[in-house]
Amino acid sequence: MTLQDPAVLLGRARRWRAADPDPTTRAQIDRVLERADPAELDELFGAELEFGTAGLRAALGPGPNRMNRLVVRRTASAIAAHVLDAAAGRPDGVRTRPLVVVGHDARHGSEDFGRELVEVLSAAGVDVEHFDEPVPTPLVAFAVRARAATAGVMVTASHNPAGDNGLKLYAADGAQIVAPTDGDIAERMRALPLAATGRREPEAAAGAGSVGSLGGPTRGGTVVERYLARAASLVADDALPSPLRVAHTALHGVGDALLRRALGRLDGVTAWAVPEQQLPDPEFPTVASPNPEEPGTLDAVLTLALACAADVALALDPDADRLAVVLPGPPDSPGWRTLNGDESGALLASHLLAGSRDPDRLVATTIVSSRLVPAMCAAAGVHHVETPTGFKWLCRPGIEHPGWTQLLLYEEALGYAVGRDARDKDGITAALVVLEAVATWRSRGTTVWEVLDELARRHGAHVTRNGSVRHRSLRHLLERVDALGATPPTSLGGIDVARADRPVPGVLRWWLEDATRVIVRPSGTEPKVKYYVEAIEPVTDDVGAARATARRRLEPVVDELLALRLTS
To answer: Which residues have a catalytic role annotated?
Structure first.
């Protein structure tokens, strides 16, 4: 990787320091300037954060390539300019003051970043309504539409490590922004002189926008109550067909209060929360990683589930937009087992398809999700759309086809959105529907494992093996993926590559001769390379044997894929 001119980078660092309002990051820049390490300067000041699959996200630190108060100010200024220009350019000629909803989680810096957003937006002449306590991301996405807002901003790094933070931006339709909006905001950020965001106008200045409170999960408020009513409406009769005992955790995030209130609206649920993970803590002290997909993260909720004789264990990620589901295993596999995202997606699809008879039903999945749900949709005569990764794309088919009844949007990374009006993933509402599905099958004497087995008999045993490898820098990571795309392998695991393509920019996909699918892509939220490998094995008699065969086919493919040195 070629580094930029150190003299140019030193100049950028000094100019950034002069505009930085935060004494902590200014002091960090001073130490960077003293060291004058070319690699460090290039990493911090050689590029600006770019919008990924879920907004802006990076480690906390100084410079335009990290999350800090100046980056947030610049983003807020660009958002204000974007929404004000849009309001001024209405075709009916009526100029209205735009409204932006702001929320924040409990990560390091989140409260300060939320305050910066409110103050900069309102000083620019934008009306702002904000949650005055930490909130889950799904509540902010919901509030944008509930308040008929122009846009929304959520301060969160979701499931990223404790040292990260970020911003998720929402359009008026309640979905995360896409082109050309993200490009326009990014261009306005790049065009801003640093001095333009170094000071804010007083909030009381003439022309400043209004600032109002939306309450929060513990304090209530109209938006919170409307969200809870919508969540409960996804379950028939606000009651489960069979009582369930539920253990749950928020993983030190901000989802506990809202989840407990949502569960309290359902008859038939008895719930226990992991006490040491119930309150927000930005250090996530009891887990090595706040990502529910990582090994060991769910140990505490499993311990609680056993102690309470629970039927189901649930885990939200720190901003509550993802959901992990853990259940007692099948008879031949004692103990508890965590469903992977594709299994949960298939179960939700099965439940929702069975409960709806609308002729124009819609299910959307991403290009990296299992091929099982598309097969289920084809068999049921249901509209299925495959999208690029990220919920900013998953929600588009429902928006573009308002006459279709949207049932489910899902991605393999534990993200699910249920219901016709869903625009972003929501672990809390998904939890209620998962419980309804489990209780429905239980009332009929069926387990989720039997449902999955039946799906395998109908559509083949779909076995996936997904993973990721962390990289030291996003820029170097992208270079490595591009190099791999330029010289793809001719075989993997002893099976010839029949076809290679790039379904979307930056994503590599290889189809093997035995129909195994391999996908490699850079993460849009962390410096990681992600890989997804799926084999499909027909079931002639024994489902377990078919799955075992598929797993054996995957092992050498994954081994050889990792040998391509994704991190070199």
So the answer is: 158
